[in-house]
């Protein structure tokens, strides 16, 4: 899942529902594993499949007209429990970016820790983005992490987004927290030596 992040241009998967919680993202019965592998198969499991494990045709992830590595979701994405498995499922499915007008804080950080970029946009930008995808499912969005901008390519509308400088550095360099510490080992050792 560790991938350097720079600029991504992709079609989108729209999920215009508010208050999508982590139990909807990955149901609790799939939390037994401690390895990140395979969680993408069960992303939105209860919305994707019926009780006989048959795909629900009307659900967006089962609709062949939608695809790409950007999920566009309604306000308050990732609320509920703090399970990191929800971010594992999003990353495991292949999403690199989630765009919403608001994220639950813990889930937002879990996404960042799993190399998924949560992009917070205004309500108006999000609505127009949903409209653009509805008009043309093949339209693209460009997410530029170095410049912290997101562009609706259908309309040309652009908006800036915020990101913690440390997390931005880690995403752009493909580093998790441990990698960052190892990369800066000499600085850490010098600091510890000065404190003795």
Automatic annotation (TrEMBL):
Family named by the database record: Belongs to the LeuD family. LeuD type 1 subfamily.
PANTHER family referenced in this protein's UniProt entry, alphabetically: 3-ISOPROPYLMALATE DEHYDRATASE SMALL SUBUNIT (PTHR43345:SF5), 3-ISOPROPYLMALATE DEHYDRATASE SMALL SUBUNIT 2-RELATED-RELATED (PTHR43345)
Assembly: Heterodimer of LeuC and LeuD.
Organism, as annotated: Prevotella histicola F0411
Reaction equations catalysed: (2R,3S)-3-isopropylmalate = (2S)-2-isopropylmalate
Any one GO molecular-function label of the UniProt entry: 3-isopropylmalate dehydratase activity
Superkingdom assignment: Bacteria
Name of the protein this chain belongs to: 3-isopropylmalate dehydratase small subunit
Family annotation (CDD domains): IPMI_Swivel (cd01577)
Occurrences of domain Aconitase A/isopropylmalate dehydratase small subunit swivel (ranges): 3-123
Record pathway: Amino-acid biosynthesis; L-leucine biosynthesis; L-leucine from 3-methyl-2-oxobutanoate: step 2/4
EC number: 4.2.1.33
Record carries keyword Heme: no
One matching Pfam family: Aconitase_C
GO process terms (BP): L-leucine biosynthetic process
Keyword Lyase attributed: yes
Gene Ontology terms: cellular component: 3-isopropylmalate dehydratase complex
Function of the molecule: Catalyzes the isomerization between 2-isopropylmalate and 3-isopropylmalate, via the formation of 2-isopropylmaleate.
InterPro entries: 3-IsopropMal_deHydase_ssu, Aconitase/3IPM_dehydase_swvl, AconitaseA/IPMdHydase_ssu_swvl, IPMI_Swivel, LeuD
Protein keywords: Amino-acid biosynthesis, Branched-chain amino acid biosynthesis, Leucine biosynthesis, Lyase
């Amino acid at each position: 899942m560790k991938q350097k992040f720079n600029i991504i241009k992709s079609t989108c998967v729209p999920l215009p529902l508010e208050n999508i919680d982590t139990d909807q993202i990955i149901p609790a019965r799939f939390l037994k594993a401690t390895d990140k592998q395979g969680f993408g198969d069960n992303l939105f499991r209860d919305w994707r499949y019926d009780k006989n494990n048959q795909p629900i045709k009307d659900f967006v992830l089962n609709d062949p007209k939608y695809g790409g590595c950007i999920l566009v979701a309604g306000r308050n994405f990732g609320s509920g429990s703090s399970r990191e498995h929800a971010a594992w499922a999003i990353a495991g499915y292949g999403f690199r970016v989630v765009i919403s007008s608001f994220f639950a804080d813990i889930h937002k950080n879990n996404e960042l820790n799993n190399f998924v970029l949560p992009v917070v946009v205004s309500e108006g930008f999000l609505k127009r983005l949903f409209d653009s995808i509805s008009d043309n499912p093949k339209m693209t969005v460009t997410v530029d992490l170095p410049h912290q901008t997101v562009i609706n390519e259908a309309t040309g509308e652009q908006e800036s987004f915020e990101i913690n400088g440390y997390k931005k550095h880690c995403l752009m360099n493909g580093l998790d927290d441990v990698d960052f510490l190892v990369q800066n080992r000499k600085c850490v050792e010098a600091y510890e030596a000065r404190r003795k």
